[in-house]
């Protein structure tokens, strides 16, 4: 359902280590540092290993931030393409990457996540 954090939160409370490790991986992917620190500590994973082993797939590129601002303003992919002088396909790729990085499934959720992450002003 696109609720990665909530799913990981539920797995983190599981009694078995395997689901808890899966939750840790998800929290790392989401960039949820407090949960990574708490759960990683409970699982005995050294903090330096946790931070360095997880690729930062949640950081938006400067171009993705530009696209996200247009998405939040209600622009369609063709409008984004025209505004940024890129192809429609490139605009689609940027929007897809943004949704994936933010762990959301809709443009509205992306805009809300951007405000929460302070990528966009409220």
Task: State the main characteristics.
Arc Repressor Mutant, subunit A, 2 domains, mainly alpha, elongated
What does this structure look like?
It is a single chain. With 122 residues, the protein is mostly helical. It folds into two domains: 4-53, no CATH class; 62-116, Arc Repressor Mutant, subunit A, CATH 1.10.10.10. 70% of the residues lie in helices and 0% in strands. The protein has helices at residues 4-12, 17-30, 33-43, 47-53, 62-72, 77-84, 88-102, 107-116. The longest helix is centred in the last third of the chain and has 15 residues, at 88-102. The radius of gyration is 17 Å and the shape is elongated. It starts with a helix and ends in a 6-residue tail after the last helix. Residues 48-56 have low confidence and may be disordered.
Estimated radius of gyration: 17 Å
- What is the strand content? under 5%
Just name the CATH architecture of the largest domain: Orthogonal Bundle
End-to-end separation in angstroms reads: 25 Å
Helix content percent band: 55-70%
Q: How would you state the average pLDDT, rounded? A: 80
Beta-strand segment tally: 0
Q: What's the number of helices?
A: 8
Please render the helix and strand layout as text:
Elements: H1 4-12, H2 17-30, H3 33-43, H4 47-53, H5 62-72, H6 77-84, H7 88-102, H8 107-116
Helix pairs in contact: 1-2, 2-3, 5-7, 5-8, 6-7, 7-8
Please provide a brief summary of the model.
By secondary structure, the protein is mostly helical.
